[in-house]
């Protein structure tokens, strides 16, 4: 999987190409595999101890059905309504390979915040995901976003996995704690942010400025709370129009020992650097 320091045919960023031995089988996102998908619409399954307990505790998440094993039921908050089932029953309800730890909940989708609610640069830093589709990476990124106090994660409505299943499991509860925004056009949204006074940095291998220097700014005092970090897809990086909509393209300095970083690792590094220049949101 290519990271954010590769070279794409479209942007000049390097990329690693791996051949798929199943040449006639289209590659599909994790959340669409198997006969029992986690959820791709208005509702879906969430599994795993931390993810389910966070969903149950989230007043914004409408719970449709909670199913737990006898041992897991002991960890539910007092008064929580749940169906007690055998582990095999959960295995049958969930996608193959789902590690549920005795917890599963079918819930309604979380409402996305309107983009107008996060445009103001004084409201905190934003993280924008440009067509990042792997649910493990999206979940890990949400976890980092929660850890570093990001105001909201912005995703394209048609090119991002729903907040169910593997995303929530990988986020370890953070999907319930970080606001998300769904937009139709990433490039146009970045333009809106810039007009509102936000400073937009795109992570790309061809960036001439190192991330830390760009965050410090020309006067060494930073850009305030209005930073927007944009992460590109796992394979192609930032799309050309998205890259052109950023104030600046920046890179994470690396040795020659590795070709690239996984996008969730790169996001964690970028958020850590950005947190040095602003107070994190509680």
Task: Characterise this structure.
The protein has helices spanning 49-57, 70-73, 87-93, 135-147, 165-171, 186-195, 211-216, 240-244, 263-275; strands at residues 43-47, 63-68, 83-84, 103-108, 126-129, 152-156, 179-183, 199-203, 209-210, 227-231, 248-251. With 282 residues, it is of the alpha/beta class. The strands form 2 sheets. It has a 7-stranded parallel β-sheet, with helices on both faces. A 4-stranded mixed β-sheet has the order 1-4-2-3. Helix 1 (49-57) crosses helix 5 (165-171) and helix 4 packs parallel to helix 9 (263-275). The model is unreliable at 1-36 (pLDDT under 50). It has 9 helices and 11 strands. The radius of gyration is 20 Å and the shape is elongated. Strand 5, helix 4 and strand 6 (152-156) form a beta-alpha-beta unit.
Summarize the amount of helix as a percent range.
25-40%
Largest sheet: 7 strands, parallel
Instruction: Compute the average pLDDT.
Output: 85
Q: Which sequence of SSEs, written as H and E, runs from N to C?
A: EHEHEHEEHEHEHEEHEHEH
**Class of secondary structure makeup:** alpha/beta
Runs with pLDDT <50, length 5+?
1-36
For the record, give the distance between the C-alpha atoms at the N and C termini, rounded to a whole number. Answer: 33 Å
Task: Tally the beta strands.
Answer: 11
Which strand order does the major sheet show?
7-6-5-10-8-11-9
Shape: elongated
Strand content: 15-25%
Please compute the radius of gyration using only Cα atoms: 20 Å
Per DSSP, the total helix count is 9
